[in-house]
Amino acid sequence: MDTTFSDVVKKVMTYYPLKVKNIYLLSFKGKKAVWSIQTDMGEWIMKKVPFDETHIDFMLHAITYLKNNGVNTPGVLKTSSGEGYVKLNGEYFVVFETVYGRSPEYNNDGDLALMLKGMAAFHKASRGIESPNGFYPSYLLTKWKSDLQTRMERLKAWKEQRQQVKNKNEFDRVFLANVDTFLQQAQAALTTLNQPYFEQWVKETEKTKTLCHQDFAAGNLVVGKDGKLYVYDMDSLTVDLPVRDMRKILNKVMKKDANWNLPMMLKMMKFYQQVNPLTKEQYLILAADIQFPHLFYGQVSKYYENREDQWTVDKHIVRLKDMISTELSKNAVLKSFLARLDEVVKRGS
């Protein structure tokens, strides 16, 4: 390990009532880093977090709130003086409990049930949370329409730009051949958000508060030795409709085969519905969010905004084609899903 890092970690650990034996760097991404710390009191996980005190205070408050309401998530080790974090040279460090177990798998029904019921329990447990300092690091609840509108405008702008380019490459050609279809899907999604039941749900959630994790996926979950689901990585919590997490996990599962799958979608939503039941109208909002071409947009923006500069053009093209295939397969599935909504909604009664 880089000696300067090793020194920093050792220095941070002097604030805790533990004796350090070994330090292992697990991951490093510029502003973020994760270490395994072997101590006289077992293994702990230290994270360097890329935000300040007010954000950390909210995260720590949310972790306690969720744990008190039955969510399994690693606890935070307090410093010798009772603080939840250490500030050193303008950087912030938090030490978490270690949970041993395995990553859940999407193609295992038992694990899928744990994940979707766990997500539903997470949303339910977060209700009523207030910020300890009046500050919410992220509040995406009221930005739905403006965010989707902005993404749609960006797709239109890229379309106009690439049409003007004389020497189009294959990425441009694939993008231009499909963009109009996805602009129509984007417009249809936005039209659904003009329904009164969308505004009503937003208003309710402004009062009750629901947190979304934003990456409630296998990579941030562990099935513990006790068979329970543990949720990690509370860095990106936001106040929002549960739909955000639901859409993200559905997209994650469906893009694995580049194809939407009705039985899988029904199964996942029935698991969710058993723990945190939604109404028919609320599922229509989920359908609208799914209808918006998030995967297509994400892949196109990665390429045109150079967000993955390590990737070859060929890799971008392969990914784009996969995302297009996934996006094009969803409309028929969504239609069938909505036709069977009663069956899903009943699971929560």
Topology summary:
Blueprint (H helix, E strand, L loop, with lengths): L2 H11 L6 E10 L2 E8 L2 E8 L3 H16 L17 E3 L2 E7 L3 E2 L6 H18 L17 H21 L5 H23 L3 H13 L2 E2 L8 E4 L4 E3 L6 E2 L3 H13 L6 H14 L4 H12 L2 H11 L8 H16 L1 H10 L1 H5 L4
Antiparallel strand pairs: 1-2, 2-3, 3-5, 4-5, 6-8, 7-10, 8-9
Helix pairs in contact: 3-8, 4-5, 5-9, 5-11, 7-9, 9-12, 10-11
Number of helices: 13
Order of helices and strands: HEEEHEEEHHHHEEEEHHHHHHH
Shape: globular
Q: What would you report as the Rg, rounded to the nearest angstrom?
A: 22 Å
Which regions have little confidence, pLDDT < 50, spanning 5+ residues? none
Strand-pairing-aware structural class: alpha+beta
Characterize the biggest β-sheet: 5 strands, antiparallel
Instruction: Kindly state the number of beta strands.
Output: 10
End-to-end separation: 54 Å
Question: What's the rounded overall pLDDT mean?
Answer: 94
Q: What proportion strand?
A: 5-15%
Helix fraction, binned, reads: 40-55%
| Lateral arrangement of strands in the main beta sheet | 1-2-3-5-4
Describe the structure.
- It is a single chain.
- The protein is of the alpha+beta class and 349 residues long.
- The protein is built from 13 helices and 10 strands.
- It has a 5-stranded antiparallel sheet, with helices on one face. Strands 6-8-9 form a 3-stranded antiparallel sheet, covered by helices on one side. The protein has a two-stranded antiparallel sheet with strand order 7-10.
- The longest helix is centred in the middle third of the chain and has 23 residues, at 170-192.
- It is globular and about 60 Å long.
- It starts with a helix and ends with a helix.
